[in-house]
Amino acid sequence: MLVTIHFGIIFPNVSDAPLPELLAESTGKILRALTRVLLRNGVACGTAEQWIRKAYVDEAFKLATEAGAKPTVSSVSAQTGLSRKEVKRLSGPQTTPGGRSEKYNRAVRVLNGWLNDRAYSSEEGVALPLSLQPDAEPSFAQLVKDYSGDVTPKAMLDLLTASSCVSTTQDMVHLVRHAYVPANDSREILRILGSDSEELIRTIDHNLTCDAQERRLQRKVSTSLLPRRLARSFKELVRRRSQSLLEEFVSWLNDNEATSDEEALYVSVGIYLYEHDVPQEPDR
Predict the structure, then answer these.
(1) Would you say the C-alpha torsion 106, 98, 28, 271 has a positive or negative sign?
(2) Domain coordinates in residue numbering, the chain
(3) For the whole model, what pTM was predicted?
(4) What angle do CA 270, 271, 272 make, to 5 degrees?
(5) Which of 47, 214, 274, 276 might form a disulfide with 98, Cβ 3.0–4.6 angstroms?
């Protein structure tokens, strides 16, 4: 049983809501947290959708193989709801999730148009300053209309400004950086985002489907009643005790590494601290 520990008391996470509703709620929480990272790194919705489709296909094939069945394009199509043509495309060796047409978001298309369309660049390929007045030529509004679909000029200007791609002087906008790199997230942290999140979700999935005696450790302690004045003290307690515990685990694992002729197993233990403000009840 999945549990949360509050004040040392264990409460099962039980809800009377229908299963599809619970899945929608949980999936929404996962995707919203992930979407914040994707938006910050300039990943368009269409690209993320292709990644999800690819994941559906890959996991459907893998699940069938693990069950001892021989997966086919037709069976995966029926299970995922994708067309046979789409399943075949996504499972082919040449597949790259979110191919060229989906890889670049609208901001990138605007920059490419600015640099390559002679209406907005010189013969030498130098981006021209564009007017912020929509009736002028060449105008930033027309560039956005030509290359970003229904995104408004103001929204696109804010996006490019936030990513240091453009600067504005009076009524003109100037391109100052050709590459759209909206975030400066560490590549190593992004790898951790994938590996650690996957391990937690697969642990939860394992606990949902395995026999009781095969369940893996999955515990959480939380409260919404921590005084803000004690937050720093609690963080220090967590940091100190968690570091000590992890060092104990590392020492044990180092002392018990498999020999070259032994079958090895990958294991991991993760500890994290999360916090957010508690919504205040409105005054009555």
Answers:
(1) negative
(2) 1-16+187-252, 104-175
(3) 0.70
(4) 125
(5) 47
